[in-house]
């Protein structure tokens, strides 16, 4: 709770500071009047004013295409694949491994207007220098819509990772594949505009399923079946606070998120089936810089993530490493 | 302790006076002379046995200080007191291990044990019936209960040649009071005459002696309450079979599964396609593990789950004909694939490092892995791997010979 309050306070302070620095153009009011904004922003109202543009440029919809530049991704370690304990989550032995992925990037598209935003990211990637060749395919969709201060949203994901020759037993090697999907819906409150500056708080619930399977490679035997190694379902419960402040050449967002994963079929023994209750807690900051005022199309984005738990979401899909850099094309 | 010993001697003394020494040889079913009552033992040995039996009667052990299952390393070899009938067999053991129309001699059992251990076997499973008409108890006594094999436990023959109704084959209604009493008597006999006297070699789980029911699914009716009654009286760990192919639905089936303590298939069944059979077995095992996990969550009881390895299935020579399809692997790699799947599932689907169960010497159904003669009918041919000689044993040693 202290973390949440601290985050909200920091967001407010940051917002105030960034507005104070932007004197080139008057800041634009959000679509809904907010007390905290009106305290700091004095609109220029003179009698010589021409009729103002009812839809200033900054209020226009934003459309970003983010192309990842950093190739580092967090994924589960090879030992966990060999031990068949991915579904245990990060509660037992160390399990995270950072791999360098290449090939097709996983781009992100963001569209936002004042009361709606959508984010879609996904793609196919392959490890370049890891001991195991991993092919990752994943997609992630988030939708948020607000009416008045009430926020309603949903997200969904699908992830698949294939690792040929992941394990070697006595005579034969075996391929590994894991597949996950899930989603959640949430309710919350929103203050501000998604395409400008805002603060949202969300409480969500959802479901996720993950399953791992293997197939042996026996040279003289064709058409072998794929066999399940594990199949787990989780109920998801999440709480998050996110805020974003946007100025002329820089924007900053901070998000704190806490996610609880509860096994649908409880585990009777943590040592054999994993813990019943897993948790993620992370703080993520995103800084967007527009380095060339005359070419606002090109921007750079740096995302920093700090995990306070074991990054249990790796049970489902691979995740960006703690530092990631995007080239952003803003339309 | 002192009181028990004193009481033991007192009862022995009274028994000797009351019964007379001659009657003691018939009293002890641990004696090979039980069936014949030949009375060829001298008086001294009879007294010794009587003392042992009476002492056992005075204090039924609450736990069996045997060999804990978790410490058994290697596959589990099912061995048999049956005769080898060449006309009805599809596996033909070498004469060093078994002679035609005979049960294995004590020496041959010893040789079988030596081979089992040589190829990585960890324990023997003795096909056993307490039915005195069969004489199997005396047979196993003559072999020292396969003392060359080391750790062992009993496969309780509860379907064929029993004292249940019906006697041979088919499901037994265990709500029937007569059948219930037979079951209790059989367990009592096995406990007093095999488990307790041989407990130093007997396989146990947490001090409870393992008894394997090779087709518990055929014990219908209220078998669950009977299992619980017996387990309250004796430290027994019942392993069932035939249960995993579908989730139990009826109340009696669910109760029986809950009352059993572990599961281990006797056979993968007779199908025409070996690869299909082993893959279906693997898939069913995964589902069964999920069922057991759910059960454990609800009841708090952990069930043991042990895999089964099967090299082939061919019962085409059994008379009367069964009309089951024969099942042979197309290549040795298919059998290795089966072993590979079992091994990779041990510790997740199956319990860690226990098993697999292997039919070592049932010659009638073609699954036996015993060293066999390479005859025209049992040689490998293109598209048909039989594995005569020790080929099947070599696979077991390669995959499960932990020792």
Automatic annotation (TrEMBL), chain A:
Keywords from the UniProt entry: Signal
Domain of life: Bacteria
Endpoints of the signal sequence: 1-20
Protein name (Swiss-Prot/TrEMBL): Uncharacterized protein
Species of origin: Candidatus Yanofskybacteria bacterium RIFCSPLOWO2_01_FULL_43_22
UniProtKB/TrEMBL annotation, chain B:
Protein name as annotated: Uncharacterized protein
Signal peptide positions on this chain: 1-20
Keywords: Signal
